[in-house]
Design goal:
Length: 117
């Protein structure tokens, strides 16, 4: 899949607002996973078979490296900006979301933002 640069830029900005910088490998893995999920939300049904392998192929790494790097991003965001993440989710988060929940929250937020204009 050729990344949509406009959508990818919005994803990068959102990740930066959540405290994630491009110095984390997971920044790019997470951004691409969100982009793929916006295009096909059902990918979240089988993240280790349908989402992570596609991200891994794009970045020429393993799916478990992708999973670990995205988990690192989720942990960072949960530690530094849990209130903003809850706001993006639209409901209070009592505990750290899983990687797939995190991707879902950001993908849904961005999809609604993109559809609004």
């Amino acid at each position: 899949m050729r990344p949509d640069t406009h959508t990818l830029r919005k994803i990068y900005i959102l990740l930066q607002q959540l405290g994630v910088t491009s110095s984390y490998t997971g920044f790019f893995h997470t951004a691409y996973a969100i982009l793929l999920t916006i295009g096909e939300p059902r990918r979240l049904l089988l993240v280790t078979k349908w989402l992570y392998p596609d991200v891994a192929a794009y970045y020429r790494t393993s799916w478990y490296a992708v999973e670990r790097n995205i988990r690192t991003v989720v942990n960072l965001v949960w530690k530094t900006h849990p209130e903003l993440l809850s706001q993006l989710a639209g409901y209070p988060l009592d505990k750290r979301p899983s990687s797939s929940q995190f991707i879902f929250i950001l993908a849904e937020h961005l999809a609604s933002e993109l559809s609004d204009g």
